Amino acid sequence: KLKGLQRVNYEDILKEAKKSDEDTSKSIDDIKQQELDEKEEQEIVREIEAVFNRDSEAEEKIEYVGRSDIEKITCLLDDTKTETMVDGEFEEEYLIIEKEEVDQYTEDSIADRESSHDK
């Protein structure tokens, strides 16, 4: 009788093991499918973000069109302005650009120089 009972137990164990394997493979398939779904979702999000970034860059470029150089520099300065902590208080730092004055040569100024050299 013991041998017969042992066989029944082995058969039950084998059945449980097969069922467990099937459940495990189903759950592995579910996990793999979930990972694929998440990757697809992330890719879609990246594509959408790329479109928004491209659109916002185009809008920023449009904003600069028609502005004078000083206005463009001012906009760039505003973009690079940062705040840092000094003694527990915020201090603003600015990028400082020194402007060199250059003589503008026009026909009149060239003529004036030539006449002053002749004298």
Short note summarizing the structure:
The protein has about 120 residues and is mostly helical. The protein is about 75% helix and about 10% strand.
Topology record:
Elements: H1 2-64, H2 69-80, E1 82-86, E2 89-93, H3 107-118
Antiparallel strand pairs: 1-2
Distance between the termini: 136 Å
Rg, Å, rounded: 38 Å
**Helical amount:** over 70%
Series of H and E elements: HHEEH
Estimated share of beta-strand residues: 5-15%
Low-confidence stretches: 82-86
Helix/sheet category: mainly alpha
How many domain units? 1
Helix count, DSSP H or I runs of 4 or more residues: 3
Q: How are the strands ordered across the major sheet?
A: 1-2
Largest sheet: 2 strands, antiparallel
Outline type: rod-shaped
Mean pLDDT value: 68
Q: Quick one: how many beta strands?
A: 2
Descriptive tags:
119 residues, 3 helices, mainly alpha, two-stranded antiparallel ribbon
